[in-house]
Amino acid sequence: MSQNRYIYWRCAVSFQDMTPIECAIKGIEQASKSYLQDLEAMTEDQILGSVGGGARKPIDFTFETAIINRRVAARVAGTTPPEMPKTEGWIEAPEELRSKEAIIAYFKSASDELVGAAKGLPESEGDKMVGREGHEQPAYDLV
Description:
Blueprint: H1 3-14, H2 20-41, H3 44-48, H4 58-77, H5 100-119, E1 129-130, E2 137-138, H6 139-142
Antiparallel strand pairs: 1-2
């Protein structure tokens, strides 16, 4: 099933009577809520730690997810997205975000930014093409 058909199917089953952009917004809201609940349930040591010492840390994965949410929000809003951090290996959260409280606030604000950008899109523009040159896709797909 193509990605677009899957989105329509998922909306038809889960979020009846919604446009594709409304469905995407609802999906982001639900995913963010669940992700934040998981972070809240973890201890600070679990968020900052790494299973076995070599696995990716939840804090770093959360930081990267937040950056991607901000980049998508910017593309939907038609602004310049923030740069991805330049690094060798995994992206790591900066020192000022290396606490449970700080990373949760950062992730929440990035999710809110994405939802706000999507909600700010007029209904008639839900299928407008957005993204980086040569990789454009409908706004609802990107969200």
